[in-house]
Protein: Flavoprotein, HI0933 family
Amino acid sequence: MMATSSNTYDVIIIGAGAAGLMCAATAGYRGRRVLVLDHANKPGKKILMSGGGRCNFTNLNSTPANFLSGNPHYCISALKRYTPQDFVELMDRHGVEYEEKAPGQLFCRDSAKDVLNVLLTECEWACAEVRMETSVNKVTENEDGYRLATSAGELTCESLVVATGGLSIPTMGATGFGYDIARQFGLEVLPTRAGLVPFTLHPELKQQLAPLSGVSCPVDAHCHEHHFREPMLVTHRGLSGPAMLQVSSYWQPGDEVHINLLPAQKIQEDLLALRKDKPQSTLAQYLNQHLPKRFAQAFNELQGWQGPLQECRNADIEQVAHTLGDWTIKPAGTEGYRTAEVTLGGVDTRQLSSKTMAVKERPNLFFIGEVVDVTGHLGGHNFQWAWASGVAAGNEA
Ligand code: FDA
Structure:
């Protein structure tokens, strides 16, 4: 990292996370004098903990439909101009090995450190300075740009980029500072809430599902007609796994979550055929065939289904099929920011340029990454947004 001799920069970026580092390298390559400031002791902490330590750094199938925002068109331009393939090429140029763990989802083969090293190397090559353990106490505007009162003294810049991320995982350095800056400069901040987060359950259901802790099964879960066909995991705290995390981003307190436990089966047809062909067979046997054993057993007990199928009336079978195909639960809540992967809401994009990420009324003030009201689905989309918005701002700041 290059040391600078004065306290004046062309670009100061607050936040040395995914978006901030990407923006720094991009602006640095344009010959801009760039400083990245972060209050944490190390850069890119969320990159390091992401994807179970292997960072799901992009999704080859990412489209704007994979993002939630009060202004759904906002993300289109940046995502189109910096694509998953562009980031893959960057990984290739640095010789990072990766693998596609699920369709489109690229993970480092070895460690998330590889992604962080690429970004830090790019910053070094672009002569962008990264200064950690520096807190920003105050931001004010002056005629040439912005003045920052920091723990390392006063710094000034022409362009200020806010890349402070969301509120999730406060122990990793997350703060609402970016929202404060937005409000200070008259921007709207849309209400925030935890997304991609496990559900907690009311005591009775939690107790009933307790024996299933650690069991996972593929489901189709939906909330407000947003369907996700992915695994669900029962934990000692509630329901998690990709399906539940995805649905949590669409869930509001009081909402129901609908879960098809056998999305690959035509349950009613199967059971009617089974009753005809093997009248002595039981629901437990049917469930055992299609669900993990512990899950089948506990679910059977939970529903109190007993006896051979020949004793079931058509209405009973219809009821069973409905229960399995549309198991409806009302979560007590979510685990909140403590474990959430992302923060929904944030800086209202209607006041930002979708081309540059700059405030429309203030072309030298930029907001990128998770601090803005653009939130991706699980599966590498959030990093893709961090890269794309970082590049868009880095090309302009
Ligand atoms: P990010 O949070 O990365 O960086 C913000 C930076 O700002 C931090 O370094 C912070 O210290 C700094 N900062 C905050 N306040 C400050 C202040 N007041 N002063 C100075 N600095 C300040 N996504 C994905 O696509 N694939 C994945 O595999 C995962 N996995 C994953 C796992 C877990 C456990 C979490 C919590 C999250 C993920 N994500 C993910 C989401 C992804 O990590 C997230 O969307 C991006 O890191 C957002 O990048 P940003 O640069 O916007 O914020």
Observations:
- The first strand starts at residue 8 and ends at 14.
- The first helix runs from residue 18 to 29.
- Confidence is low (pLDDT under 50) at residues 1-5.
- The domain at 199-334 is CATH 2.40.30.10 (Elongation Factor Tu (Ef-tu); domain 3).
